[in-house]
Amino acid sequence: MLLNDCAAWMPSIGKLRVVISENKQLLVEEHRGILEYADQRLVLGLEKGRLVISGQNIEIGEYTDRDIVVLGKIRSMEFME
Amino acid sequence: MKRLLKDYQVSGSGVERLLNVLEKEGFHLQDIARKKKQRLDFSAPLDQSARLEESLKSMGFSFQVLPARGLLKRVVSFHRNRFLIVISGLLLMAALCSLRFIWKINITGAGSYLGEVNGYLRECGIAPFVYKGSLDLQKLCEDLLYRLPRVAWVRAEIRGVELEIRITQGVPQPAVISDTDAGNVTAALDGVVQSILVFRGTAMVKPGDTVKQGQVLIAGKENREAGKEALVQAGGKVYARTWRSADAFVSAERLRESATGRESETSRLVTPWGTVVSQPSPDYLTYDQEIRRIYIGEAWVPLWLEKVKYKEIALEKIPEDIEATKAEAGALAMRKLLSLCGKNDEIIDKWLNFCMIEGDTIQATATAELMTEIGVYTPQISN
User: How far apart, in whole angstroms, are the C-alpha atoms of residue B185 and residue A3?
Assistant: First the structure.
């Protein structure tokens, strides 16, 4: 499973955790749902604010109600209020 | 501008693949939430819904359109109820437009001039449902003041949808009392003259004379040298014995109430504007009633349920002690008499008379003999 393959060297404490592997794989734990997914742009809701991920050939690898794995060439990751 | 969104619930396996495919096909998905392993909720623009539904079907996903919310819900609701909304809007516009007109004309203080005022308003075309903007209130006031000679003041104002015209009639100027012309001292009351003191003028009565109210006591003329007569303002003090009386009526019976034991209760539904439904009340001649009001809610107007308890009472006449009643009537008559006397009046004597009149009522008459000044200056009026 992709989720298990990702580095989990920090114990999960129920807070947002973002793990990026090179720039091709991104794990986001404890998100609050996908607010927007279009035009190679993925906006995730967080407990406080939003996380905007954009790049090339962005795809959702795995998606649960708590965690999400984003695949593709990730160009930018922006935390917004 | 906000786009209208349509909500979908999609079931099937491989929801991640579905999302990726939809994104590549150019669908702008929002609020994507994974409810269960094989269930996904998301929103898509309304203008993409037809194409989206075809894509979902072709990919083998079953979907369900969720009830409209937000802006779309309001739009759908409007389309379903547009007739009602349009009618409501027209009624509101009609109500707002009607506020620009006068609905009622209220004229106060016109007295006998009311007919003329109404005639003037008819001439000018001022009537209920006239347009407010067409009214010249200042001209209206000026015209009415010109037409009605005995009117001192006219005021016209628009209060809400009512035109109020207030007219104040003038008070006629009183006759001018000259302070240089002659005048007499006349009697203000009937009486027997006890003493007369003349400052100016000529005494027309002497002590012991019986005088009537209005009779000249001191004439405003004096004899001068060579038989000439001069007119003066008479002055002087005339004291006389007069009488005043006052009556009081007190019943020699009193009513005693006693309960007969018969009671009944009725209910009625009331609003602030009156009774809606009511049970008939019992046919007791005399009764006490207790009313208990219970608020039961609102159906466009507030409603109360009133429970009325009637208790029949019998009235019995009980005779009072005659002497006590006479004393009470006498005291009352004396109090009234003393209130009629002036502070400079000297009471020579006072007494009471009693009699029994119809209905077992005691009439007490208090009479007082007073020594009082009865002269009052009466000027000659000049116009």
Answer: 126
Contacts of A64 in chain B (CB under 8 A): 34
pLDDT of residue A17: 87
Which alpha helices (H) appear in A1-81, and where do they start and end? 2-5
Q: What is the per-residue pLDDT across B102-135, written as a single tens digit (0 to 9) for each? A: 889 999 988 888 888 999 999 999 998 899 988 9
Q: What is the C-alpha separation between B184 and B377, in angstroms, rounded? A: 6
CA–CA separation, B351 and B365 (whole Å): 8
CB atoms within 10 A of CB A64: 13
| Separation CA A21–CA A61 (nearest Å) | 13
- Which chain B residues contact residue A36 at CB under 8 A? 28-30
The pLDDT of residue B275: 84
Residues of chain B with Cβ-Cβ distance to A60 below 8 Å are 16, 19-20
How far does the CA of residue B24 sit from the closest CA of chain A (Å)?
8
Measure B18 CA to nearest chain A CA, in Å. Answer: 10
The tens digit of pLDDT for each residue in B150-187 reads: 888 899 999 888 999 999 888 766 666 566 678 899 99
Q: Report d(CA B374, CA B189) in Å as an integer.
A: 6
A49 touches chain B (CB under 8 A): no
For the record, the structure tokens of B250 come out as: 């007190």
Compute CA distances B312 → A51, B54, B279, B281, B318, whole Å.
83, 83, 18, 12, 19
Three-state DSSP class for B68? coil
Q: What type of residue sits at position A25? A: Q
Q: Does B30 touch chain A (CB under 8 A)?
A: yes
For residue B223, which of B211, B214, B231 has the smallest C-alpha distance?
A: B231
Look at A38 and B20 and tell me if their CB atoms are within 8 Å: no
pTM for the model stands at 0.37
* Interchain CB contact of B29 with A (< 8 Å): yes
Nearest chain B residue to A68, by CA: B16
Residue B1 sits at the vertex; the CA angle it makes with A78 and B2, to the nearest 5 degrees, is 75
B368 in the Ramachandran plot: left (φ > 0), alpha (ψ -120 to 50) or beta?
beta
